């Protein structure tokens, strides 16, 4: 077997011992990388272990760079990989550190920090290792257009009630502008309720009460939609699987007596 | 074709290129209008771009005025349009600015601000361009009477527990009056929880705990209702209605080609 | 017709014009009564209209007293009414004011205030005028035992995590005692989140995160139960109502060909 | 009957009067024990009744110790009990107080407090007395793998948006580090919304708005899953399985007396 085929097996397939080991190591490196990005942002930890994080970041970036190059080398159609979702994620996992060279002196600290934090997107590399629940995905995809209408309704309601609350409460009670009032309305409608802004006038509190009860009714809609679509989805999957001995068609209804594809009796067996 | 018919086609129908262009332009103008109303309310932006917003408001109002007049001219029964939902929305989209002339000197700033903000209702003009999800609307309409009973129950509960909390916590812990206590109960029952008012005494916290757990149970009700009604709705729509011409059996799956009860081909018609 | 029968018709039945008028007047008096109790608790309104509320309370109490006496007189079995739910509610609607005589001088202000607020329970008198949604009530009744287990689980979780949070955060961060910590856990688990108490230590915030995600999963349970029970309930009601011409049995399945009660063919009509 | 058999009957079975009495007494002792742990943590109560709680704790610990020993003696396979869930819970219910002897002088107060609070786990002893709702448990077990994927999605989203918010708002607005920002994102996504940290910049508030609406959509997923699985579960259980001995048709309603397909009496058996 050619070395490229071997490499392909190790990197892209998980059913050989070497392939499994490769995946496990990569998962550990990704997890460590994300952990380091997170801890690096805690001031107290940064002050103490700054140098360690700097070294670790270089090691991890080099590992990901090697992985990226190996993935390109070992695949037949490298461009398809490069422009795929995971290809872009893999590239973004290595770039930030290299880019800091170009910006390190002239540009502001903000750009640097933004670049360093881009590394958090490495978490998307993990999704590769989760078997996608197709059932769930299909239900979500089917619910999407209806949920969009619902989100649109939420936006309409929050624009109108947000403006109303701005008019009633005004800047003196924290509703400093219409965008802020809309932000407050969405905070209330989704039952989050931070409490950073809250109505003070009786009329404002009364309208807030209406928004909350409306939010209650509104929350029922996406739940109902996903719930119903998911139920339909799983029902279709769990359907009786009596198969036709003539054409092999499997998806018949429980009460079916004849194959819906070829009309052959479902009760007959090959031995008849 | 008469010019009025042509106009009608452009304004009321969206399937010709000109009609589509008209709709797209209008959508952009509406969106801009709402954006300007929102930005106008932000003090910092208002201070800088006040004059620009003033001009823009005039341009937009004139555009909407022309649209309103054209809609009346091009339709056969103008009164039906004028008193329809969108007719009133269209009128309200133009009026505010004109009305400011009458109030500008003598009346207070409050009235002016209220009038200016009325323009936010222009957002309702957008609903014209959203294909209504009849399925969703029917489910909501059917759920409404049951949700009303549920809302009534929420009100009863919040009146009684609100009074109870007023008695227990009292004005010294923020529950200044019964209406305010009822407002707090609804904030809690709907799981919004601003935190502007919160129980301080052990008994008050205990009752708050009960309200929260009750709110949990209560939230299940509208969700359950909408969920169930929506499921019924979508089930009825998704039912394939191709019936067998031999035995009359109706409940076939979408993919069925032969009757599941008698094995007769579903594609054959009596005329075959 | 005897005067007691006439009175019974007016008070207990709503299908005659006089009965309807009686109900409408009573509803208005109840609503006014509740409104006055609420407004009376607002300090600013109380200061101004104290005397008016005092008079109004006397008028309303006398109206309810007359109503109570008339209800007892006009019914055949007065004791069944007196000890019924509405009998007790009606009595409690009149008592508070009379009781203030006995406590007015010697007892504390607290008792008086409590008594005055008891009047809010008059709101329960309104439930008489709402047609109970039996469908909803049955679904709730059937869900109750399962929801009880769920509430029990919530209590177990909040006792354990409450104690844990008390240990981690301690009195210095607002978790002053285990009962307070349990209160906080329920506030968090039910996604209310007042923010009066919140974790400050990293470990506390991490456990709070777990509780919130758990709360998310937990909220799904009662919703799922009510949703499912309600769906079952409404499905059974909406069932095909083809009735048997032999025995009158109505609840047959869609696919039924013979009556499930007497075995008579459902396709036969009396004219056969 | 041997004394060990008698003891087994009293301790492990609840259908004899003595067994019932044993269970009731134990339940009371457990409840008192938890109540004491809770009250003991309230400073004001601790100061007054400290000595009483100390004595009570000793009495309760001795009762649980005796119970633990009796359970081991009266069972045939003591090791299976000792390493079972309830065996460990029972042991942990007695240990804390004994362990305080070893730590009382040399170790810190913290360890002692932790040990004392371990007693709250006695609440798990109560689960023994609740008939598990198998229906609910099965639905939850079946939903678990799908809910895990959903929780994973929540974690991915909160890591990315948490980092984004840290970048936008920064330490000066309370988002002191990435872990804290992730904590805030989960607080927001689960609609808890403490308000201890909240966005201040317009961009931060806009992204917060997106997170909240996303959280709305996301909350629908576990609810939909549990709801659907529970419905499937209860449907399968509630299906009447009385079958017709004539034609074999199985799906009859509970009230059916005759087969709906052939009209044969459902009460007749082949032996009639």
From TrEMBL, chains A, B, C, D:
GO MF assignments: voltage-gated potassium channel activity
Keywords from the UniProt entry: Ion channel, Ion transport, Membrane, Potassium, Potassium channel, Potassium transport, Transmembrane, Transmembrane helix, Transport, Voltage-gated channel
Domain of life: Bacteria
Membrane topology: Multi-pass membrane protein
Subcellular location: Membrane
Annotated signal sequence range: none
Stored Gene3D superfamilies: 1.10.287.70, Voltage-gated potassium channels. Chain C
A single GO cellular-component term on record: voltage-gated potassium channel complex
Record InterPro entries: Ion_trans_dom (IPR005821), VG_K_chnl (IPR028325), Volt_channel_dom_sf (IPR027359)
Alphabetized SUPFAM superfamilies for the sequence: Voltage-gated potassium channels
The name this protein goes by in its record: Voltage-gated potassium channel
Originating species: Psychroflexus salarius
């Amino acid at each position: 077997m050619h070395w490229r085929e071997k490499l392909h097996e190790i990197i892209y397939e998980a059913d050989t011992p070497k392939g499994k080991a490769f995946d496990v190591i990569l998962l550990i490196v990704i997890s460590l990388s994300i952990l380091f990005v997170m801890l690096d942002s805690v001031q107290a930890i940064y002050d103490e272990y700054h140098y360690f994080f700097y070294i670790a970041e270089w090691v991890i970036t080099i590992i990901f760079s090697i992985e990226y190059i190996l993935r390109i080398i070992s695949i037949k159609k490298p461009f398809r990989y490069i422009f795929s979702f995971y290809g872009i994620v893999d590239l973004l996992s290595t770039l930030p550190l290299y880019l800091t060279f170009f910006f390190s002196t002239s540009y502001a600290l903000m750009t640097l920090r933004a670049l360093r934090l881009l590394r958090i997107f490495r978490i998307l590399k993990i999704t590769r290792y989760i078997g996608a629940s197709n059932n769930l995905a299909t239900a979500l995809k089917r619910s999407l257009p209806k949920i969009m209408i619902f989100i649109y309704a939420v936006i309409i309601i929050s624009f109108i009630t947000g403006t109303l609350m701005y008019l009633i409460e005004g800047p003196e009670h924290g509703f400093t502008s219409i965008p802020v009032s809309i932000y407050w309305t969405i905070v209330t409608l989704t039952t989050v309720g931070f409490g950073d802004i809250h109505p003070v006038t009786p009329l404002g509190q009364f309208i807030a009460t209406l928004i909350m009860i409306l939010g209650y009714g509104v929350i029922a809609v996406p739940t109902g939609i996903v719930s119903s679509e998911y139920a339909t989805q799983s029902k279709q999957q769990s359907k009786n699987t009596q198969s036709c001995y003539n054409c092999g068609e499997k998806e018949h209804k429980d009460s079916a007596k004849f194959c819906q594809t070829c009309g052959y009796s479902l009760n007959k067996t090959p031995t008849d």
